[in-house]
Amino acid sequence: MARDPDPGNEAMMLFRSGCAIAALICATPALAQTPSQAELAELVRAQAAEIAALRTRLDRLEGARVAASQPAPAPAPVTPPVVMAQTPSQTGGNVTSPFAPQLVPPGPAERDVAQARQANAAGVTTEWGAGLPVFHSADGIYTFKPRGRILTDVSSTFGSDYAARNITTTGMRALRLGLEGGVGTHFFYQFESDFSENEVDIVTAFIGWRNRIAPGIDYDVRAGHLFNDRGFEGSTGSDSTPFMERTVVSTAIIPQRGFYGVGIMPRLFWKTGHASLTVTGDRIDGNQSGNDSRTVLARAHWNPIKTANSVLHLGAWGFDEGLAAGATTLTRNTVIGGRFNGALRVSSGALTGGTGTTGYGLELGGYVGPVWLMGEAGQRHARLDAGRPDFVSKAWSLSGGWFVTGDLPPYNPRLGSFGQPRVLRPIFEGGPGAIELTARYENLDYSDLLTGGQGWAATLGANWYLNSFTRFQFNVVHWNTDNRAGAFVGPDDGQTVMTRIAVTF
């Protein structure tokens, strides 16, 4: 290939051309001695035209040489497409994913090792999940997602023999704001605060580490302010429960410290179940003037049947709690017909002198297609001082639901609990959303104490999921209580109607 002339050679050519013209004039006697004005003018015009053409070419070559010496401009950045993990229903394979395809993709703090590695390797910058995006750094190392939930309730009770129980109230079941994220494949974190009831309450707050032991066997370890892994509905978040309030098994067979405690929780996951062990002190309270109570809690669940549209769930859990010297009051007043009616409770009566508690429970249920069923039962033994016998609390429940729109129940086989559903036909895309009809019976018995009451409730409900993070709930509860102490003694029954608007992101 011929090379372009060097700009320096072009300049030399221009100089030589001028010299040649001058020499021609000098070497032609007639032209040198007696040139006419017209001839001289024509000669000058020809020389000027040649010089102008050579200068133009010289400028063009000089510009090309300067451009070649500069670094090439960087190509325009190209944003890669968002890469989401395929579900078994998308790939046509067997159900091997730890998360069911009817669940929304898990956030950074709930992914397994393979999902975290895939998200990092994808190099995505934004991944839209439920309500809010998951952000990834350009190098794929850092992951971040805002979190929140808004649960707004209205409750009305009527039919009670006590006028003080027949009230209508409103409340925020949850008003949370938080974040979660990860660094690399293994490290993750989560933090949430709740602002309901005009108070700021730290709820979930932990850091964690996850890894893979062998194909199909993972683990993670969390440390911080931890939510209990206890029972089916007791392990389900308030934004994912199929009813507006958890069962009495979850709310009564519980450590004295409640649903949260500061400590550590290692968890082991395999293809058909999981197991966890939790060791905690008290929940966050800002009181460091004495010892914390100590709680050890364990749970395991197993799915002996797990197909594309059916699951059998078996679970067991238990805890043991040693109470600190300042936490000896064991009085219980447990919700039976709605959270926002403070007069509607099953009461144990005043109980002091506790030294510790031990509780345990069983879970049995599952789903086939759009129909699910779950039974739970548990007992709690409260140890008392001065040689008094234990106070035994007993509770059980039977719950079920049917998605009339054909959606699968939002069962999470990795954790053995309910999660956020992936709605097949959201109303924002022209579909009907997901419509679920529910029913439950629950029974609570504190009558082992002379001052202890008992009660039961039957609930009919409907849930309308507009999409994966927005839903309306409606519950009608027929309740019955028989308290032996407090302001509402003796048999009483009535009805409570409740509704909720919920947004989770």
TrEMBL record:
SUPFAM superfamilies, sorted: Porins (SSF56935)
Keyword field: Signal
InterPro entries in alphabetical order: Porin_dom_sf, Porin_O/P
Top-level taxon: Bacteria
Residues spanning the signal sequence: 1-32
Pfam families in the cross-refs: Porin_O_P
Protein name (database record): Porin
Organism: Sphingomonas hankookensis
Lineage per the UniProt record: Bacteria, Pseudomonadati, Pseudomonadota, Alphaproteobacteria, Sphingomonadales
